[in-house]
Write a structure and sequence with these properties.
By secondary structure, the chain is α+β, with helices and mostly antiparallel strands. It folds into two domains: about 1-60, Orthogonal Bundle (Arc Repressor Mutant, subunit A), CATH 1.10.10; about 70-155, Glutaredoxin (3-Layer(aba) Sandwich). The chain has seven helices and four strands; from the N terminus they run H-H-H-H-E-H-H-E-E-E-H. The chain has helices at about 1-10, 20-30, 35-45, 50-60, 80, 85-95, 140-155, and strands at about 70-75, 110-115, 125-130, 130-135. The chain has a four-stranded mixed beta sheet with strand order 2-1-3-4, with helices on one face. A hairpin with a 2-residue loop joins strand 3 and strand 4 (about 130-135). Helix 3 (about 35-45) packs across helix 4 (about 50-60). It is elongated. It starts with a helix and ends in a 5-residue tail after the last helix. It binds FE2/S2 (inorganic) cluster (FES). FE2/S2 (inorganic) cluster binds near residues 75, 80, 117, 118 and 125.
Length: about 160
């Protein structure tokens, strides 16, 4: 991990105002922000650890736990909610044995719930990485995730 941190730190001066971009780059490099990495960042930008931890927990874009290879985001905005997002959520949680924000044991998927993603016409909607799947019902959701898993296991485009 130290090597990854050094790579990131090499592009910065170690100033306080670099905290957020440094955290972003560290997350990109390691995949999330382990506690030890945040301590090193605090030392690097010469800020108290508590302040750095505070910033990392405040912004939703920062992840303090390892995340899965693929991110499933279920829209829980109004249109999707009205059209049954809760049933889709149940299906995903049962199927993958995860809770919101959780990651499957095999580290394949992290499951998140988000506000309207602007595809209300397709409600209820979920995304897997950068792909959008709409007009879902529990059955279609299960098939979609299975198919996505098979396609990515083959190394092809999902
Ligand atoms: S409410 Fe789900 S896409 Fe808008």
């Amino acid at each position: 991990m130290q090597e990854q941190l050094n790579t990131v730190f090499a592009s910065y001066q170690g100033e306080k105002n670099e905290l957020i971009p440094v955290l972003q780059d560290v997350q990109e490099e390691i995949g999330y922000l382990p506690e030890e990495a945040m301590r090193e960042v605090a030392r690097f930008v010469r800020m108290p650890e508590a302040k750095v931890f505070g910033v990392a927990t405040f912004y939703a874009r920062f992840h303090l736990e390892p995340r899965g290879e693929h991110i499933i985001r279920l829209c829980c905005g109004t249109a999707c909610h009205v059209r049954g997002a809760a049933k889709i959520a149940d299906k995903i949680k049962t199927m993958l044995d995860v809770d919101v924000g959780g990651t499957t044991e095999d580290m394949n998927y992290t499951y998140e719930e988000v506000a309207c993603i602007g595809a209300c016409g397709l409600a209820p909607v979920m995304t897997i990485d950068d792909k959008t799947f709409g007009k879902l019902d529990p059955d279609k959701t299960e098939k979609t995730i299975k198919k996505f898993g098979e396609d990515s296991a083959e190394g092809g485009e999902a």
